[in-house]
Amino acid sequence: MKKENHISYEYFKNSSELSDIEKTLFDRAKQARENAYAPYSNFLVGCAILLENGEIYSGNNQENAAFPSGLCAERTTLFWVAANFPNEKIEKIFVVGGPREFHEKNPPIPPCGACRQSLIEYETKQSQDIDLYFSSMNEEVVKVYSIKDLLPFYFDATFL
C-alpha cells in the first residue's frame, strides 16, 4: 500500500512579507550569521529562537579544524537556550545561511539532518509544535509549522 506525506509550508518571496516578529527574528539570525566562525567552509549560518516569554536568543555555526568537531548554528543556539531556560517553550526558530560570498541564486537553506533530529527532540519534549523558518541572504523564506514537516519519520524516545 502506498501512502503519501504532504508537507504544509509557506513561501515568502522576501522579508517584507513577514510579520513584525518574523522580521525581527530574520534580522537577529542575519546578524548572528555575520559572527559565525566558518574559516574552512566559508558557509555562514545564523539562528534566532523566540521563547514563549518573548525573549529572543541567537547563535551561529562554529567550525573547527578537527572536523567534525564544529557545531551548526541551530544546535549551538538550541543547546544554549535549553541549558539556560529548560522550562521555557520555543515558539519560533529562524535560520539564515549561505556562502560567505552572497549569491542571489542561493535558495533558502534548511537545517541539516543532525539539526533536524535535535530540533525534533525539543519539539517533542515541549509537546508543542515549533514554527521553523529558513532563508538565505536573498531573503526568500520558507516556513514550516512543525519540525515534523521536515522530518516526518523522526526518531524519538518512544522507540527506546
Automatic annotation (TrEMBL):
Signal peptide: none annotated. It catalyses: cytidine + H2O + H(+) = uridine + NH4(+); 2'-deoxycytidine + H2O + H(+) = 2'-deoxyuridine + NH4(+). GO terms for biological process: nucleobase-containing small molecule metabolic process; pyrimidine-containing compound metabolic process. This is Cytidine deaminase. InterPro entries: CMP_dCMP_dom (IPR002125), Cyt/Deoxycyt_deaminase (IPR050202), Cyt_deam_tetra (IPR006262), Cytidine_deaminase-like (IPR016193). The keyword Transferase does not apply. Its cofactor is Zn(2+). Keywords: Hydrolase, Metal-binding, Zinc. It comes from the Bacteria. Residues 20-158 form the CMP/dCMP-type deaminase domain. One of its GO terms (cellular component) is cytosol. Zn(2+) binds at C72, C112, C115. PROSITE patterns: CYT_DCMP_DEAMINASES_2. Pfam families: dCMP_cyt_deam_1. The active site is at E74.
